[in-house]
TrEMBL record:
This is CBS domain-containing protein. It comes from Amycolatopsis acidiphila. The keyword Cell inner membrane does not apply. Keywords: CBS domain. SUPFAM superfamilies: CBS-domain pair, Nucleotide-diphospho-sugar transferases.
Length: 354
């Protein structure tokens, strides 16, 4: 699978001595605006644009001249850590059809195109996004739009999640829908315009299934996962590393892994610590921290059959069951940007209003 991705990337790259004839063939086949030029170590040297090639041909150049004679600097590059939504916004701002992904050594490790991304290995894992909640705490904003479809920086929260998963190599995504499901289904369709295959786990309007119950609906569509499932809430703004999460899950040999984020509470007073009715010590304005549930999980396929069909079931109940059976449940520190959008203040922060 990885080898196929590498070959796809290789055919999009040229070296200095390749003729512009080859560059034009790639541009025509890939329907791009330019071709990247690399050195023998795979480091990015420049690009050749379709516009520059046509200008040179009109000036009398032949198709056999090397691309190095027309090479210019790319208008933009991005690091592997930059999310797909941000890349698409960059494309729109600069009117680009592709943006190279360049690592810290200057090597090209992928290319973002408008309708796909190459160079990123496709993952076997499917993703299930829970997007059926009403979002009552955000009313009246959610009176006519599902909470996951609220915009952040001009793009719906759920779209950001889908694009992030696709940019990380996930190609099969299930959206669990209920409240105003038609809004979500109309926006995403079959997922083709987002570079993936999307199907819907449809809850009954008057019977919500919670954060875990929709997993059982996979059987209704005839699906049986063969790799760990990525399960996440649909109201998260995050750029978590999908690959790191899956790697941590496998390394721990757990049946499930829960992402965690550190929550800190600052006490604005001097705290008195007693002992046997006497003052033991004074701690001035301490800060306490706890790990809290990040709403992103990895679940082994065999756990799906433990989800009761047709009733409300929080996914945390599944993890409690694992612990009672003596099974390992791993924890993974997100460490990346993460924000839950459940209250007006949190939405305002994510939208940059506070």
């Amino acid at each position: 699978m990885v080898e196929n991705q590498d070959r796809d990337l290789t055919v999009c790259l040229l070296t200095r001595k390749n003729p512009i004839r080859t560059a034009l063939s790639i541009i025509d086949e890939r329907r791009t605006g330019s071709v990247l030029v690399i050195d023998e170590d795979g480091r990015l040297e420049g690009c050749v644009t379709e516009q520059e090639i046509r200008r040179s041909l009109l000036a009398g150049a032949t198709l056999d001249i090397p691309v190095e004679q027309l090479m210019t600097k790319p208008m933009a590059t991005v690091a592997p850590s930059v999310g797909r939504p941000e890349v698409l916004d960059l494309m729109q701002a600069l009117h680009l059809r592709e943006v190279p992904i360049v690592d810290s050594s200057g090597r090209v490790c992928g290319i973002h195109f408008e309708d796909e991304i190459i160079g990123t290995p496709q993952l076997e894992s499917w993703a299930v996004i829970m997007a059926g909640g009403r979002g009552t705490r955000l009313a009246p904003l959610t009176d006519n739009i599902p909470k996951p479809m609220l915009p952040i920086a001009g793009r719906p929260i759920l779209e950001r999640l889908v694009l992030h998963l696709v940019g990380s190599g996930v190609r099969k995504i299930f959206l669990s829908v209920n409240y105003l499901a038609e809004v979500i289904e109309k926006h995403f369709g079959d997922g083709s315009k987002f570079g993936c295959d999307i199907e819907y786990l449809r809850e009954e309007i008057d019977r919500p299934l919670g954060t875990g119950g929709p997993l059982r609906l996979l059987e209704d569509l005839g699906y049986e996962a063969t790799a760990p499932l990525i399960v996440l809430n649909g109201d998260l703004v995050t750029a978590f590393s999908v690959q790191d999460l899956l790697d941590a899950h496998r390394a721990r040999g757990a049946v499930a892994t829960i992402s965690v984020s550190e929550y800190q509470h600052h006490v604005p007073f001097g705290v008195l610590e007693p002992r046997d009715g006497y003052l033991q010590r004074i701690v001035e304005k301490p800060t306490h921290s706890w790990f809290v549930n990040g709403g992103i999980y990895v679940v082994e396929p065999q756990l799906i059959e433990r989800v009761p069909p047709g009733r409300m079931f929080p996914i945390t109940a599944l993890f409690d069951d694992c612990l009672k059976r003596g099974e390992l449940v791993g924890l993974w520190d997100i460490r990346d940007d993460w924000q839950d959008i459940g209250r007006p203040a949190e939405l305002a922060r994510a939208q940059g209003h506070t």
